[in-house]
Amino acid sequence: DAGVIQSPRHEVTEMGQEVTLRCKPISGHNSLFWYRQTMMRGLELLIYFNNNVPIDDSGMPEDRFSAKMPNASFSTLKIQPSEPRDSAVYFCASSLGVIGETQYFGPGTRLLVL
Amino acid sequence: GENVEQHPSTLSVQEGDSAVIKCTYSDSASNYFPWYKQELGKGPQLIIDIRSNVGEKKDQRIAVTLNKTAKHFSLHITETQPEDSAVYFCAASINDYKLSFGAGTTVTVRA
After folding, report:
1. Nearest-neighbour CA in chain B from A18: distance (Å)
2. Largest CA distance in chain B
3. What's the CA gap between A28 and A39, in Å, rounded?
4. Which residues of B35-50 are buried (b: 16+ CB within 10 A; e: fewer)?
5. Which of A40, A105, A110 to mutate to test the interface with B (most CBs of B within 10 A)?
6. Alpha-carbon distance B6 to B10, whole Å?
7. Cβ pairs bridging A and B (under 8 Å)
8. Do residue A48 and residue B97 have CB atoms under 8 angstroms apart?
9. d(CA B82, CA B107)
C-alpha cells in the first residue's frame, strides 16, 4: 500500500497568492482529516470528512481556508488569499472508519508564505 | 474543549535505558488515548493506543498506562535504541476522530 499521498511536499508562495494542497487517502478508507502543525500551536485538526462529506470543520481558521472531497480518492485544502501566518506543515490523514480506527498520516506539505 | 499537557518537552536517555513520557487531560469524558511517533520530515505514526476501559497495554518494548481517576496516561519505552529518537505526541479523544494532541516530547537516545 502506498499510504496517504500528499502533494506538493514543499510550497513557497507570496502573500496574497492562492495555495492548493492535495491528498490521496489510502484506498478503502472512508474518513479523511486535514491537520496543521506549527511550533506555536502544535497539531490541530482543521476539518474531518466521512464518506466524502465534511462532518466537522470547526478547526478551519477562517474563511480564507476551504476544503473539498469530490470523491473517495481525492481531497484538496485551499487557502485564498494566503498570509505569512499560514506558514506551517499541513498533514492529511485517513482511516477506515471513525470509531477506534487508526489515523494514518501522510508525509505533509511544508508551506512557506513570504 | 479537551486540553492535553505533555511532559517533558525534551528527554535525553542513554541507549538501553528507559524513557517515560507523561500526559494529563482535562475532559473526564475522553475515552481514547493514542501515542504517535514523528520522525524528521515525516508525518506522525501511531505506535500504541489505549481505551478508557483498560489500565495498561504493552507491545514489545512499548507500554502505555492510564489512570482515569487522575486523568493522566504515560508512555514507557524500555531498552531504548537509537531508532527510538523522534518526537512523541500523546493525544486524547472523546469521540475517536477529534484528537487533541499534546505539545510533543523530543526524545534523543545517546549511543
Report:
1. 24
2. 41
3. 33
4. bbbbeeeebbbebbbb
5. A105
6. 10
7. 50
8. yes
9. 10
Report the half-sphere exposure of A113 (CA within 13 A, side-chain side): 18
- Which A residues 93-112 touch B at CB under 8 Å? 93, 95, 98-108
CA distance A54 to A51: 8
Is the preceding omega at residue A61 within 30 degrees of 0, hence cis?
no
| Contact yes or no for B31/B45 (Cβ under 8 A) | no
User: Would an 8 Å CB–CB cutoff place A45 in contact with chain B?
Assistant: yes
The tens place of each residue's pLDDT in chain A, 114 residues long, gives 689 999 999 999 999 999 999 999 999 999 999 999 999 889 999 999 999 999 999 999 889 999 999 999 999 999 999 999 999 999 999 998 766 678 999 999 999 999
Residue A92 near residue A78 (C-beta atoms within 8 A)? no
Q: How far is A96 from A80, CA to CA, in rounded Å? A: 30
Dihedral over alpha carbons A86, A90, A94, A97 (to 10 degrees): -30
What is the number of residues in chain B? 111
Look-up of cell digits 469524558: B29
Question: In this predicted model, what pLDDT tens digit does every residue of B25-35 receive, in sequence order?
Answer: 999 999 999 99
